[in-house]
Amino acid sequence: MSTAAAEQIPGRAEGDGIAARARGLTKAYGSGETAVLALDSVDVDIARGRFTAVMGPSGSGKSTLMHCLAGLDTVSAGQVWLGGTEITGLKDRELTRLRRDRIGFMFQSFNLIPTLNAAENITLPMDIAGQKPDQKWLDQVIDTLGLRERLKHRPAQLSGGQQQRVACARALASRPELIFADEPTGNLDSRAGLEVLGFLREAVDELGQTVVMVTHDPGAAAHSDLVLFLADGRIVDEMERPSAEAVLERMKRFDTARVTFDGERGTPGGGSGDVTPDKD
Ligand SMILES: Nc1ncnc2c1ncn2[C@@H]1O[C@H](COP(=O)(O)OP(=O)(O)OP(=O)(O)O)[C@@H](O)[C@H]1O
User: How many structural domains comprise the chain?
Assistant: First the structure.
């Protein structure tokens, strides 16, 4: 579960099946009149060995949540743990090492190095860190992702889907505790996107990985075990075993709520009532 565990003693996350945890996570950008509250006291537990999707309207704080959980961004208030380690308050160097050792990233732009072949791209972060890949694990990742025949190809010689699979393998190569994926299918056609989602699903089911994915796409979210819905910097709902239809329906209610509260063309009471500015 995610939000329901808010009352537990925080920080005791090592053996309790929680890969990442936030309590009172608040992030404000700017100050004075231009200040934006991107995250408003968020409590969340990311369960180990599960595939969690984060959805919500544009500007609701999805990327900010991911960046704060991954230690890519500082927080304004609150605490974040990765496994049993509190990362809020860590020095830059410690944070960099922790990210390198324990987190894999997949972004919309694959960030592959054009002059390196697929195999070299996959192990690059480990090479830079001076780590030796676990060859058995690496072989398993490469075979699971169907990249065995493409290892000598450079990115330009690969399709978009294959490039994203290389990015996926790179994120998995060091067997990170947690993989953060930000719109990993955003640049792909639907077939390639489905492939990548299938591989992320397999990474969870067959390789025991933990995945957190930010997405706008209800179809993509349907591959997850749990969807967290963000609105106005707060987690306002969650859905277990989501279907694309159910997620789409839930997202539509955000639109209705937003239009209603903007007072432009809303039908009073037309929204779910779940997502109000003064909820809680
Ligand atoms: N560096 C920044 N400086 C100022 N405001 C920011 C910054 N980054 C994000 N914000 C603001 O914080 C809020 C949350 O942004 P965030 O990118 O987390 O939303 P999102 O849900 O990921 O949006 P999208 O779906 O459009 O990518 C937005 O109002 C955004 O304008």
Answer: 1
Q: Which residues span the domain enclosing 128?
A: 3-262
Whether 111 is covered by a domain: the verdict is: yes
pLDDT in tens, 173-212: 888 889 999 988 877 778 778 878 888 898 899 888 999 9
Q: Of all protein residues, whose CA lies closest to atom 31 belonging to ligand 1?
A: 59
Q: What is the CATH number of the domain that holds 121?
A: 3.40.50.300
Residues forming a β-bridge with 182: 214
pLDDT digits (tens, 9 = 90+) for 141-173: 898 778 999 999 999 999 888 888 898 889 888
Q: What is the pTM of this model?
A: 0.82
* Nearest atom within ligand 1 for CA of residue 230: 21
Nearby residues of 260 by Cβ (< 8 Å), 6 or more positions away: 266, 267, 268, 270, 271
Within a domain: residue 63? yes
Element at 80 (helix H, strand E): strand 77-82
Query: Who lines ligand 1 at CB under 6 A?
Result: 29-30, 36, 38, 56, 58-64
Q: If you take atom 27 of ligand 1, which residue's CA is the nearest one? A: 58
